[in-house]
Task: inverse folding
């Protein structure tokens, strides 16, 4: 017997930085209205969408960009969510206390309330991605968030490379995995290296869909952002926001170098059909995975 369809129209809002939080918020609001007008039930924004990706350098002045949750952005987006009847997944620089900050995703439900938040668990520290300077590791675990459109597994950027995070969200009942993202190329990378990185990024996320039998969507930034005003270097964010179905099948993808409002029609019931045929969760040997709790098997 087939399961009854549960259609969900998802909007991925891929944008470039407009130079100021005010300008970014205005463009985001326009895009959310356009998504709702086109029948979206759920909208996913890119990582740290209010401004530039400031983690390219270690700058104490950047802490002034942080805000509390609830706070100005979450409250403004909550009001929009209630007005539009739209679930919104946003990404903020959270000021939890003086000297304590997180890279945090917030979920505004269709009635405007703050349905939940997720604090980034895997925090990178690499050239151009100095996030450990700004963000404490998340402490909320991998807990899906219930909303009017379903149970959402929300993760953030660097989390997308870790199968353990996707699996735990799936085991918690997530019906879709959502990744606000800020990833791009070093301008010094040649074309072959850029292609390898992009294909690996797509591949790892499609594998999360396949291994867990649930759809996956990632919303990335686009455009070039310099390391600092007047400084050499920077990141060319590679766009390519995309979504795939519960067996990893590509459904839609945005371009590399342009803003996009990408609409994707999902069926949240399709995952059960996939899991009936490919029962990976049934056949897991949970009695034999103790080594996963060790850093390395010396």
Result:
């Amino acid at each position: 017997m087939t399961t009854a369809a549960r259609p969900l129209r998802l909007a991925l809002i891929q944008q470039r930085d407009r130079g100021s939080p005010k300008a970014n918020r205005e463009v985001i609001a326009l895009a959310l209205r356009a998504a709702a007008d086109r029948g979206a039930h759920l909208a996913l924004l890119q990582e740290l969408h209010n401004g530039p990706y400031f983690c390219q350098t270690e700058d104490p002045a950047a802490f002034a960009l942080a805000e509390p949750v609830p706070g100005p952005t979450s409250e403004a987006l909550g009001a929009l969510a209630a007005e539009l009847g739209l679930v919104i997944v946003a990404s903020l620089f959270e000021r939890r206390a003086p000297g304590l900050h997180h890279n945090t995703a917030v979920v505004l439900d269709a009635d405007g309330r703050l349905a939940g938040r997720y604090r980034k668990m895997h925090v990178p520290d690499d050239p151009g991605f100095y996030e450990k300077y700004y963000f404490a590791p998340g402490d909320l675990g991998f807990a899906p968030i219930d909303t009017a459109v379903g149970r959402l597994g929300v993760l953030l950027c660097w989390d997308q490379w870790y199968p353990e995070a996707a699996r735990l969200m799936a085991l918690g009942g997530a019906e879709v995995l959502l990744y606000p993202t800020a990833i791009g190329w070093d301008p010094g990378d040649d074309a072959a290296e850029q292609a390898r990185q992009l294909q690996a990024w797509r591949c790892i996320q499609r594998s999360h869909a396949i291994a867990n039998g649930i759809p996956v969507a990632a919303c990335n930034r686009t455009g070039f952002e310099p390391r600092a005003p007047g400084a050499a270097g920077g990141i060319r964010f590679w766009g390519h926001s995309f979504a795939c179905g519960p067996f990893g099948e590509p459904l839609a993808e945005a371009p590399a170098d342009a803003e996009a409002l990408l609409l994707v029609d999902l069926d949240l019931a399709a995952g059960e059909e996939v899991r009936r045929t490919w029962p990976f969760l049934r056949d897991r040997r949970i009695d034999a995975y103790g080594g996963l709790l060790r850093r390395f098997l010396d």
